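Annotated sample (chain length 349).
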Amino acid sequence: MKEQIEQITKSALEEIQKAENSKILNEVKVKILGKKGELTQVLRGMKDLSPEERPIIGSIVNEARNEIEKTIEEKEEKFKEQEMQEKIEKETIDITLPSTKIKRGSKHPVNRVIEEIEDLFVSMGYDVVSGPELETDEFCFERLNLPQGHPARDMQDSFYITNEYLLRTQTSAVQARTMLANTEKTPIRMICAGKTYRREDDATHSHQFGQVEGLVIDKKERNVSLADLKGTLEVFVKKLIGKNCELRFRPSYFPFTEPSYEVDVSCFKCGGKGCNLCKQTGWIEVLGAGIVHPNVLKMNGYDPEKYGGFAFGTGLERLAMFKYAIPDMRYLYTNDIRFLNQFDRKDEE
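Output written by the structure step:
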C-alpha cells in the first residue's frame, strides 16, 4: 500500500504541474482528494490492515495529502496572479490619449446676482432670511395692509391653491414673519431673496421670477429716515449694476409703505436715449421702496409711535438683465448652454 500511495502522489504532482488553468486544476483536486478520489479510497482500505500497520500507513497518507494540497494552493495562487495581470492589462487606460471635451455651462446669472446681493448686504450688517413659497393669504396680503377686497390686490393676479393658500406674489411676506418672530423687538436688518409667482409674461416679466426684499426696523429715537433708504439703495444699485448708472426717485403708491417711491435706473440698452426695452423713456423701473406703513407695524407686533423703518424690493431677473446686458428676460429660462457659458467671462471683464 505504501508503493500505491507514493505512485498516487507522484502522479498527482505531475498532473498539477501540467494543469493549464483553474478548471483543470480543480478536476485534478477532485480526482485525488475528492470523496471518491484515489487517496480517499486508500484511506477507506485501511480497515483491512493490521493494528500495527494502520498508524504507519495513516502517517504516510497524511504526508501525501499535505504535499498535494500545498502544491495545489501554490498553483491556484499562480493562476490568480495571472488572471489579475491579464485583467490589469486589458483594462488599462491610455492617459496620453486626448480626452473627450465636456460641454460646460457656468453659474446661472440669477444665482450670481443673489450671491452678490447677499454678500453686499451682509457686509452692511444685514441678516439673510428665507420663508415659504406656498404662503397664506394672511401673510401675503393682510399683514401687509392689503385686506380682502383691496384694489391693489388686482395688480398681483395670483396662483391660488385654495382659498387660503397661494404661491406667494412677493417676498414681503417674509418681512411680516420676521417682525412677528422678533418678540424681543431688537433692531431688524434683513434681506430675503427667493421665487415669487404672478400672471405675467413678456420681455421684462415672467410668471415665475425672483425677488429680493429688504427691511430695516428700529426705534424712532434712532431716526431711521428716508435719507437712510436713499443712501442704502444708491450703494446697492451702483455696486451691483455699475457706478455710472443714474438713479431716479419718484413718488408712488404701495399699501405697505408710506411714503412710497419707485426707483428707476437709466436704460442700459440705449443709454437713456429711448428704445423698445425702456419704452422710449430712457428709464427702467428697478425698485419699489418706502417707509414702513404704520398699519404694517401695528399688525406685526410693533408700536408705530415707538418704531419705524424702511423697506424695499426688486426683481432679481431685472438686475441680472442690467448687470449682464440681457435684452430679454426669457433668455434666463431657456437652459441654453450657449447662453449660460458666457457669464464666467463676463464676470472676469
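Annotation: The first helix runs from residue 2 to 18.
Annotation: The chain has two domains: 2-90, 109-348.
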